[in-house]
Amino acid sequence: MRIVLVGPPGAGKGTQAQFIASHLSIPKISTGDIFRANVSGGTELGRQAKEYMDRGDLVPDEVTIAMVRDRLGEDDARDGFLLDGFPRNVPQAETLKKILAEWDTRLDIVLELVVDEDEVVRRLSGRRTCDKCGRIWHVDFDDKQDDICDDCGGRLFQRDDDKEEVVMHRLEVYRHDTAPLVQFYADESILVGIDATGPVEEVTKRALTALRPLEN
C-alpha cells in the first residue's frame, strides 16, 4: 500500500506514521530521515542539503525530490510505503505523481489527520522538555505542577518552537503551503479525513479502519 500522511503540526503524524507502517509492514519514510541518511552517508545530495541546513534555510524542492525519488526506488519500498512530511505543497505532489507514474503505479490513499487549531496550540505550547534526559512532558496531559522531570530530576523547559507565537506561525505556514495539498488530493478522490483528537490508540484505530478496504 502506498500512503501519504498529511496534517498540521501537532496532529500526531510521526506517532501515527510509525504505528500504521508497522501494522502494514511497509517503510515509514520522512524527509527528516532521508536528510539525515544522506548527510551522514556523505552523498552528493546530502552535501547539497547540508549547505542549506547549516545556513538555516529550507532545502530546495529539487534536492528534496531527488532524495525522495532515490529512497522510493529502494527495494524495501517496492511493494509499498508511508510518506510522512512529503509532499509539503502542490508542486511536490504533482512531481510525486509523475515519479510514481513512471514506475506504473500511484498512491492508494492520503490520510489527513484532522485536528482543531486550538487543540494544536494546546498540544504544542503545553509541552516541556527535560534538559537532562530529553523526555517530553505536558503541563495538562501529565498534570505537571512543577518544572522538574519525574524520571531524572532534570529541569523542564519550553523549546522555542513550542512557544505559542511560534506555533501560530507554523499553523499559518501550514495553511498557506500545505492546506492546498488537501484539496489537491480530494480532487484526486484519494483523500480520507481522520479525526485526530483523543487517545493515540483511538486515532490509530480510526486510521486502520479507513485503510482496511484497501488491504489485500
Written overview of the protein:
The strands form two sheets. This protein has a five-stranded parallel sheet with strand order 2-3-1-4-8, sandwiched between helices. A three-stranded antiparallel sheet has the order 6-5-7. The chain has 216 residues and is of the alpha/beta class. The chain has helices at residues 13-24, 31-41, 44-55, 61-72, 90-102, 117-125, 164-187, 200-211; strands at residues 2-6, 28-30, 81-84, 109-114, 127-130, 136-138, 156-157, 191-195. The longest helix has 24 residues, at 164-187.
Based on the model shown, name its key terms.
216 residues, alpha/beta, five-stranded parallel beta sheet, three-stranded antiparallel beta sheet, 8 helices, 8 strands, globular
* CA gyration radius, whole angstroms: 18 Å
Give the distance, in angstroms, between the N- and C-terminal Cα atoms. Answer: 9 Å
Low-confidence stretches: none
Largest sheet: 5 strands, parallel
Helices and strands, in order, run as EHEHHHEHEHEEEHEH
Instruction: Provide the structure class.
Output: alpha/beta
Note the total helix count: 8
Topology, number of strands: 8
Helicity level: 40-55%
Average pLDDT score: 91
Percent in strands: 5-15%
Describe the strand arrangement of the main beta sheet, using strand numbers: 2-3-1-4-8
Given the C-alpha coordinates, what overall shape results?
Answer: globular
